[in-house]
Model the fold of this input.
Amino acid sequence: MKQIVDDYQLVEAFRGGDEKAFEELVRRYQRQVANIIYLTLGNRDEVEDVSQEVFIRVYKSLAKFERDASLYSWIYRIVVNLCIDEIRRKKIKRTLSLEFFSEGKLEEEKKNKSQISAADGMLGKEKSQVILDALQKLSPVHRTVIVLREYEDLTYEQIAKTLHISTQAVKSRIFRAREELRELLKDYFKERL
Amino acid sequence: MSHKYFQQLLSSYLDNELSADEKLQIERHVEGCDECKQRLQIFHTVKSHIHAGGNFELSGNFTQSVVRRIRQEQEGAVLWLGPEVFARRLILGLFIVVSCLVGLGSLFQPEQTVTMDRYLRAEHQDSVSIQVLTPQSEISKDDILYAAMSK
Ligand SMILES: [Zn+2]
Done:
């Protein structure tokens, strides 16, 4: 991740009052940030707004950033936390509205979870979309870790540093996320491998 | 080593997180195990689709939008400083006024009770009874006895 002007120099310039340094930082990371958000939340409409929120948080707390961490892992941690908050907030909202209508719908939702991949196959949905939809069915914790691995190509150690967890925890979360995805896509892949 | 053992390692193998020795062992096993081969293939497919799925493009003026939102928040914070100070002073002022009113109210409260008042008006010639009911001076046991006898 070596840059012409490295991340630390940009941070120092920003701390010294150079607002352009912050803009350069946004340009440097906006693509990765947006895509981690997109893959985690699975909704294009939210990406722009949540990405802005991430960089506003970066702006506000850049003074607290310490050199012992890499800037990318510090930013990704903000992204992951914001995504997890967003998923939980939506889940509470959805559960409340479902409970409001009828309790039976919750059971129906659970049943749909395992059937959706097979149905999607029949509807002729594109393979990538089916896989991205399955990704949305994982828990927020499994989802974020697998996105950092598959999209960002971070090593177990880099993910561990980003999420402040052990490499063993990273390894087991990735393992479980993959097993869950395989289970969800089992029927879909039966005829397509 | 069993099939189960290798199956557990497939995920780490895919991520290139195994030692050279483990890597070699797993490759040998997968060669002859259809189940592991298929599992690995699914993992591969999922990986490449998630990777390629990261194709979102932010709007061209994204950086400017972020900067604008930060400016707006900063201006909002400055604008809010006025009302906040005003509200704090208003609450303090109200507290002082209410405290003063409560204090003044207790100053003007009538000290005598209605019952005592009525008693005093009806039997004003009975000086000892008045003494018992109005604690202006000390009364003795004899005073009470005298009051009872004289009535
Ligand atoms: Zn096997």
